[in-house]
């Protein structure tokens, strides 16, 4: 179900379309790239898998996965921002398929991917339960769903983000994130802090 009239989606669209041209050069990249580290670690030595990066932005994580695997992976990227995807297209080999779409309504058949990933974007999703259901739907049985998202130790910092970061909907505590995964019917949930400001939540589709 696409909801193009959702104010938050429109907010995100405008914000990231505007940011796209300078996104890769911004000082924030020091921060952004840290979110990719646990995923690259997870995918080390993995080959011949179907992987989708949701909210792939300018394609930096996809590019790192491609290089790490020597190109032996079937990669797809999705983002709501056409401008972010324009940069991703320039960066990535043509074998990486890119889609302009909302994560709440993905353009894929059920049971398609071995890994469904998203980094530094989950807090922008206007219906996080629905987004997780979609992630589960497109994962294969036994496939993995991995969310790496912002997490600080203090609720107050989350509150500041929610108030001032454009398009931010909700930053979940570690416990809230686990609860969302459990409610989505995902299993073998493992959570791991990476650096001071993010948490990876990994799980399997049963
Ligand atoms: C902070 S950027 C993170 C980009 C990339 N994952 C990274 O690690 O650099 C957040 C991304 O989420 C995307 N986004 C926000 N809401 C979305 C939605 N509903 N569906 C798809 N992408 C969305 C934005 O367009 C933006 O590219």
Q: Which key features would you list for this structure?
A:
206 residues, 8 helices, binds S-adenosylmethionine, seven-stranded mixed sheet, Rossmann fold, 39% helix, alpha/beta
Verbal overview:
The protein is α/β, with parallel strands linked by helices. The protein has one domain: Rossmann fold (3-Layer(aba) Sandwich). The chain has eight helices and seven strands, in the order αααβαβαββαβααββ. A seven-stranded mixed β-sheet has the order 3-2-1-4-5-7-6, sandwiched between helices. Strand 2, helix 5 (82-91) and strand 3 form a beta-alpha-beta unit. Helix 1 runs parallel beside helix 5. The radius of gyration is 16 Å and the shape is globular. The mean pLDDT is 92. S-adenosylmethionine binds next to helix 1 and helix 4.
Ligand kinds: S-adenosylmethionine
Major sheet: 7 strands, mixed
Instruction: Compute the number of structural domains.
Output: 1
Our measurement of the CA-to-CA distance between the termini, rounded to an integer number of angstroms, reads 24 Å
How much strand content do the residues show?
Answer: 15-25%
Overall mean confidence score, pLDDT: 92
What is the third-level CATH name, the topology? Rossmann fold
**Total helical elements:** 8
Helicity level: 25-40%
Number of β-strand runs = 7
Q: Order of strands side by side in the largest beta sheet?
A: 3-2-1-4-5-7-6
* Class by alpha and beta content: alpha/beta
What is the CATH class name?
A: Alpha Beta
Morphology: globular
CATH homologous superfamily designation: Vaccinia Virus protein VP39
Order of helices and strands, N to C? HHHEHEHEEHEHHEE
Query: Segments where pLDDT lies below 50 for 5+ residues?
Result: none
């Amino acid at each position: 179900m696409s909801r193009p009239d959702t104010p938050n989606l429109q907010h995100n669209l405008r914000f990231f379309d505007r940011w796209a041209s300078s996104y890769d050069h911004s000082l924030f990249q020091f921060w952004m790239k840290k979110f990719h580290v646990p995923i690259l670690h997870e995918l080390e030595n993995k080959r011949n898998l179907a992987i989708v990066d949701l909210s792939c932005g300018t394609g930096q994580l996809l590019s790192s996965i491609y290089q790490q695997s020597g190109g032996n992976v079937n990669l797809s990227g999705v983002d709501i921002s056409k401008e972010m995807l324009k940069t991703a297209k320039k960066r990535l080999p043509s074998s990486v398929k890119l889609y302009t779409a909302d994560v709440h309504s993905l353009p894929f058949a059920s049971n398609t991917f071995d890994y469904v990933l998203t980094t530094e974007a989950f807090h922008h999703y206007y219906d996080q339960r629905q987004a997780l259901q979609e992630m589960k739907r497109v994962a294969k049985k036994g496939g993995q769903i991995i969310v790496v998202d912002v997490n600080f130790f203090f609720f107050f910092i989350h509150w500041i983000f929610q108030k001032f970061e454009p398009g931010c909907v909700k930053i979940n505590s570690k416990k809230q994130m686990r609860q969302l995964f459990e409610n989505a019917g995902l299993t073998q949930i493992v959570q791991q802090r990476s650096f001071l400001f993010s948490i990876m939540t990994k799980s399997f589709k049963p």
